[in-house]
Design brief:
27% helix, 12 strands, Rossmann fold, globular, two-stranded antiparallel ribbon, eight-stranded mixed sheet
Length: 193
């Protein structure tokens, strides 16, 4: 299947989950995330507000915040088209052009991507090799393309998904920024390092 067909099929499957199934998945995801060694070392962790049936990192965010981690959310950069920067998870929010809440860059201190330790990003589909498929906007790829050429090891990109979003093999494009790992409600897949 091509990327658009995979995207459509996985989004439909995600939307069929009940709120109880979503909560159970979120709790299992949080348990796996909290066991990761990078969690102990990170000062700040960017994540997302679940939308469109995405696996929800909110349970993890609550625990991480309680353990002294700075939790961040992405916001569309006003000056760099197609790029993201990051603001406080609990900060003042606004709604972006996609109808998703994000930190209001005029009323929150914002961090550039190189200041973030860990980025948890939503996936539409993934494969065992660490290939990933997002919503198709390219925001994360453009924002973190510097990781492919700079030699920087930070931030570490971790994809999050429901276990059923795994496919055998995804078509990968040259602009797809690789992940360090993918974590689902059932397992951890170590990808690129």
């Amino acid at each position: 299947m091509d990327r658009n067909s995979i995207r459509q099929q996985m989004r439909e499957q995600r939307m069929q989950l009940s709120s109880q199934q979503q909560l159970l998945s979120a709790r299992k995801l949080a348990q796996l995330l909290l066991k990761q060694s990078w969690f102990q070392r990170a000062n700040n962790i960017a994540m997302y507000l679940a939308n469109d049936g995405e696996i929800d990192p909110r349970v993890f965010a609550d625990i991480a915040h309680h353990r002294g981690k700075q939790c961040l959310l992405p916001s569309m950069h006003p000056a760099k088209s197609g790029h993201l920067w990051f603001g406080d998870y609990d900060g003042i929010k606004t709604t972006n052009k996609f109808g998703i809440e994000e930190p209001d860059s005029k009323r929150n201190q914002m961090l550039n991507p190189k200041q973030v330790d860990i980025v948890l990003l939503p996936l539409v589909a993934f494969d065992q090799q660490g290939g990933r498929l997002g919503m198709g906007g390219g925001y994360y790829d453009r924002t973190f393309e510097f990781l492919q050429t700079s030699g920087l090891q930070k931030p570490r990109l971790i994809g999050l998904a429901h276990h059923f979003q795994q496919v055998e093999k995804l078509p990968i494009e040259s602009w797809d920024v690789p992940l360090s790992a993918i974590i689902t409600d059932e397992k951890v897949i170590t990808a690129a390092s």
